[in-house]
Amino acid sequence: MDWDEWMSEAARAKAEFATRIGATAADIAVFSSVSEATSAVAIALDFGGARRTLVVSEAEFPTVAHVWLAQERRGARVSWAAVRDGVIDAAVYDSLIDDSTALVSSCHGYFMNGFLQDVARIAARARDAGALSFVDAYQTLGTIPINVRALGVDFLAAGNLKFLMGIPGIAFLYVRPEIVASLEPTVTGWFGRTDPFAFNNKGLDWAPTASRFDTGTPPVINAYVARAGMAIVNEVGPQRIRSWLEILGQRLIDGGRARGLALHGTGDMTGKTSTTAFVVRDSHAVEAAMRARGVLPAARGSVIRLAPHFYNTIEDVDRALDLLAEVTGTT
Ligand SMILES: Cc1ncc(COP(=O)(O)O)c(C=O)c1O
């Protein structure tokens, strides 16, 4: 045991995450998954008053949607922002958000096809209606510059398994400092206290920072790996990464079309990440066939998803497309 070093590492990992999103370490809580982070936000909300509606995008990763649906037992009502042709028209939110809205949950990048939502616009609409905004940035952090202050969001959650180049078992939550004092996440623990090491079992004092969302002993080992991955992304630089991924993403769109593959969602690189999906007949069989030949795509329902990162090359993208076309018989 080395509690001092463990606590320091958890704090350093929070700080590295904060750097990535333009926040400070005090605005960050640590969890073992995005599901837990989302539940922590949900349990801090009160659905007993006039604001009972949760506006949830149909592009949410299932786990996030499940957390919001589970709140219906606590008096909430989920209202869906519909996905059409693999994208969501931002104007859909305008008609859904009103003075009964408690929170708007809109993922930044769509896990199916990389479609990017204008979360700044959605957060502004939520704020104007007196509602909170929650963003799952798991599919975008590490691929594109993100500044939570510029976006104006109240909560942003992400894990480290994907483009942050970490491992499963750790995730972070940003809470806008101006709202922290108004929230009491009642799934809690000693790390949610002002001083966890006061060992006071009869005092429920809420930490003044986002730390009030922390619960038990943080996932310390995972924090080391997560911080190392985030440090690489921060060192390379999100803007440089985005510039290269725009080239690889465009290559995927153009190369997919040239090979007769059916693109899922938008073909406009300004509105998507490099993650690009193609509609295929049996996505799991296609994934297995490609993996057997050394290319690692992801089967997601009716699509096969290709998600290059900054270390990938044009040749990697062409090889993946050639193989996908061969396996699906378009060439
Ligand atoms: C957008 C998004 N959110 C959340 C998750 C997973 O969340 P959790 O950390 O709870 O497993 C994923 C995993 O694929 C994801 O793509």
Structure, described:
The protein is α/β, with parallel strands linked by helices. 38% of the residues lie in helices and 15% in strands. It is built from 11 helices and 11 strands. It has a 7-stranded mixed beta sheet, with helices on both faces. The chain has a 4-stranded antiparallel beta sheet with strand order 8-9-11-10, covered by helices on one side. Helix 5 links the parallel strand 4 and strand 5. Helix 9 packs parallel to helix 11. The longest helix has 21 residues.
Order of strands, widest sheet: 1-7-6-5-4-2-3
* Element pattern in H and E: HEHEHEHEHEHEEHHHEEHEEH
Strand content: 5-15%
Uncertain parts: none
Largest sheet: 7 strands, mixed
Please give the count of helices. Answer: 11
Radius of gyration (CA) equals 20 Å
Number of strands: 11
Structural class: alpha/beta
Helix content: 25-40%
* Head-to-tail CA distance between termini: 58 Å
> Quick one: overall form?
globular
**Overall pLDDT score:** 97
Break the fold down into its secondary structure elements and pairings.
Elements: H1 3-21, E1 28-31, H2 34-43, E2 53-57, H3 62-70, E3 77-81, H4 91-96, E4 101-105, H5 119-128, E5 132-136, H6 148-151, E6 155-159, E7 171-175, H7 177-180, H8 220-236, H9 238-258, E8 262-264, E9 276-279, H10 283-292, E10 298-300, E11 303-306, H11 314-328
Parallel strand pairs: 2-3, 2-4, 4-5, 5-6
Antiparallel strand pairs: 1-7, 6-7, 8-9, 9-11, 10-11
The structure holds pyridoxal-5'-phosphate.
Pyridoxal-5'-phosphate binds at residues 33-35, 61, 63-64, 107, 111, 136, 138-139, 159, 171.
